[in-house]
Amino acid sequence: MPFVSRAEWGARKPKSAGNSISSRPKGVAVHYEGPKMGSRDHSKCAALVRSIQDFHMDTRGWADIAYSYPVCEHGYVYEGRGVGKGSAANGTTAANLAYYAVCGLVGKGDNVTSALTDGIREAIDICRRAGAGNEVVGHRDLYATECPGDVLYSFAKAGAPYSATTSTGGMSAHAPAPVPVAQPVKAAPKPATTKLAVDGVFGTASKKRLQQWAGVAQDGVLGRQTWAAVQRKVGVPADGVAGPQTWKAIQRLIGSPADGIPGRATYKALQSYLNNH
Question: Most buried among 5, 36, 103, 242, using CB within 10 Å?
Fold first, then answer.
């Protein structure tokens, strides 16, 4: 499933660093937004995530968006607080420090798509690779609430399995994400003559240049095939999910501080690197 960094969805800077999550988090809590959200074109999903962040920061008074990773109905995983940080979504301080919070951007009566549940599972896998335990719970297991609704609660209690329609379907809840079957690599086109703007905004032109460097089709969509190709280039397991391990390897390659968290400084360094390679 595609990963959308904070810079890509236009996140605000947090008010403060917030609390670090436990050194041994128990697992991940699954959430939904609550009120009926309806369906939307994917082009509007980033704005929805921004509006949730605004509500959490300006109305709730929280340091940042509450969730570790929101996931839209189309299966895109948005970087919220990310790994290493406690959430503000689980209801109590103890629960926020013990469990990451992954939220499906749906509510009561909304359709829960297989793309959404697969995206939630992708986010769970990101958290596990960062050290989260194998527990998958619903928000209602931690706090008196209806969240995440009956459909997502059943999904969580089943271990958050991949859907039968995805290439990773049938995976055990405790298994690592499987390595995608390698796709034929298309011949890279001649190097582009136009330099990327080194502005830290990793838009379509930057994504296509990254795909050119990785040797895959240049469609400007950073999906599993692109990330698996990038991972092979930087020498990490090619699971197709751009988690902290992948970003640390990229950051080491481009000479950026290797904290595993992509931001404007990392994107600037990556744009400079791609302009010269």
Answer: 103
